[in-house]
Amino acid sequence: MTGGAEVVSKPYVLYGHQTWRWYGKYLRDPISCFLEAREIYGPVGGLGNPLPFLKDGRQHVMAFGAVPNRIVFGQPDLFRPGGQVLRGPRESAQRRMRRSIFAMHGAEHDRHRRIMQPPLSRLAVASYAPAIAGLIDQVLDRWEVGKPIDAYHEMLTLSNWIAAHLLFGEADFERSLAICMLIRDWITLDVDVRTLHLRPTVPGTRVRRLLRHAEKLEAAMRQLIEEKRSAGAPGNDLLSQLIRAHGDKDFAMSDDELVAHSAILHGASFLTTASTLAWAMYLLAQNPSVAAELDREVASKLTSWPPATGEIEAMPLLDAVLKETLRLLPPVHHTFRTVAAPTDALGLPLQRDDRVIMSAFMTHREPSVYPDPDVFDPSRWARSKPGPYDYIPFSAGPRLCLGFAFATLEMKMILARIVQRYRLALVPGSKIDVIYRLTLCPSAGVPMTVEPRDGAYSTAPVSGNILKLVRHGRPGL
Ligand code: HEM
């Protein structure tokens, strides 16, 4: 067995029928499942095979907090991500599309990360700012004062446009958008099939639709790659940059890899940013003093649009609001790792193929790191700086989110521009329920009214499980 120097204190282990309740609860509502399991048993424990008479059942471990995060995220070859999409039959487009960076390990993963890093580096990302600024205004121009919007829907549209621009370019923007819609539908179908626990080897309408859709998407992507390549791939978009890297033998990617990476990058980027932004808009609307302070910060620091170099980075409250939103409602609520070899690194015996569930949501509610963890309090970021494994909305360790710099710039620009142009108020009486569906998102949107930027910030009464998950109350910095 490979071990870990840090031992997790007193992990619990449940067996057989004792685990049924927790597996059922997890499938219905992972948010409540984690909160309750943590409360009753503690931060780390195993749910054994629920059907012990079946030999190949695997154990699932829930491991919440900085210590297990460091052990698991710090050893990506022992605790491997399993790929984000369903494994299709051999030789299927679905199987090929699964082979993205998310499913790679070891040297192969390192090489692909090195190839994808330059176009997503902090320096490169700054060059996308003018294009992002234009797209933000295109969406915000459609809003009318006095009219309702669904903040989540608007942010889905905007982040989809920005992802289309970043990944496939503006030269034929309609086409870039059409491919993004194909990717979005593919991911939605994939999640549906996984939620219903259908196997692609078992024929069924939904599975067939998924496999057919994967073929359609793959064909559209291949054609786009072919056309870009024969035109010399001159664009600044990510796909063109990766195609151009093809000439270099160390940086060459196959077409299958280009297709898989592009599809999963779109999925990884647009749903996560849309959910975060919708939550930030909700939290600002319910915290008038923070919203008013942010309004003042934007008024004094954002002097041009697109923002001048360094302007967005020089807004501490904007930074704190985003960090606090990602702390309280991290879009990637939890992730899985598969154990590659027997180990007791987490303080309990784990076998190959056991799975570990890691949760940003639970990590971010550790009271010793975040006093009053349920309270939206951007000012906490001026008082303390949590360690890299205490704050993991973008994961941690060698597989930290590659889009971190891009997502941060994009989300800050969007929030700053909204505050600069409008005041958004929640529609009183709205029901705001948080669900986990690929990301932690509002189940029925976030209904808001567009108001003039008049500084008249005030809260609105709402219902829904958001009230159990987030409390309001502190001023800004
Ligand atoms: C709010 C926005 C975002 C959040 C919260 C987020 C979060 C995450 C998390 C938690 C992971 C690790 C997943 C796991 O280990 O299972 C991840 C990985 C990744 N993300 Fe993001 N992400 C965001 C936006 C983006 C964007 C905009 C891009 C690209 C343009 C991107 C590209 C990636 C890639 C390529 C990986 C895989 C890295 C690897 O395995 O080495 N993400 N992200």
UniProtKB/TrEMBL annotation:
Heme binds at residue 401. Its cofactor is heme. It holds the Pfam family p450. Gene3D superfamilies: Cytochrome P450. It comes from the Bacteria. Keywords: Heme, Iron, Metal-binding, Monooxygenase, Oxidoreductase. InterPro entries: Cyt_P450, Cyt_P450_CS, Cyt_P450_E_grp-I, Cyt_P450_sf, Cytochrome_P450_monoxygenase. GO terms for molecular function: heme binding; iron ion binding; monooxygenase activity; oxidoreductase activity, acting on paired donors, with incorporation or reduction of molecular oxygen. The keyword Metal-binding applies. The keyword Iron applies. Belongs to the cytochrome P450 family. This is Cytochrome P450. It comes from Aquibium oceanicum. The lineage of its organism: Bacteria, Pseudomonadati, Pseudomonadota, Alphaproteobacteria, Hyphomicrobiales.
